[in-house]
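In the design runs reported in the main text, the only information available to the sequence generator was the tokenized backbone. The following block is the verbatim input for one such run; it is reproduced so that readers can re-run the procedure and compare outputs position by position.
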């Protein structure tokens, strides 16, 4: 499974730039995104309190997680 994770820290930011960057990356490798996970979360929240922490615990061997650096 290929999972894309998008996070913004405020409601004033947009996920579209991250989504487009991930699409280009995946398309360049002929990958299909099976699941998109989006989250509005402050960087000060603990990882275990975020969707990302839950997602990482549920991932299985062979899964791929794509994130962007913002």
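Verbatim output:
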């Amino acid at each position: 499974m290929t999972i894309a994770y998008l996070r913004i820290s405020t409601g004033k930011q947009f996920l579209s730039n991250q989504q487009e960057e991930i699409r280009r990356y995946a398309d360049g490798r002929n990958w299909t995104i099976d699941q998109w996970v989006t989250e509005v979360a402050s960087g000060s929240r603990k990882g275990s309190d975020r969707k990302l922490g839950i997602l990482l615990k549920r991932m299985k061997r062979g899964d791929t997680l794509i994130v962007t650096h913002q």
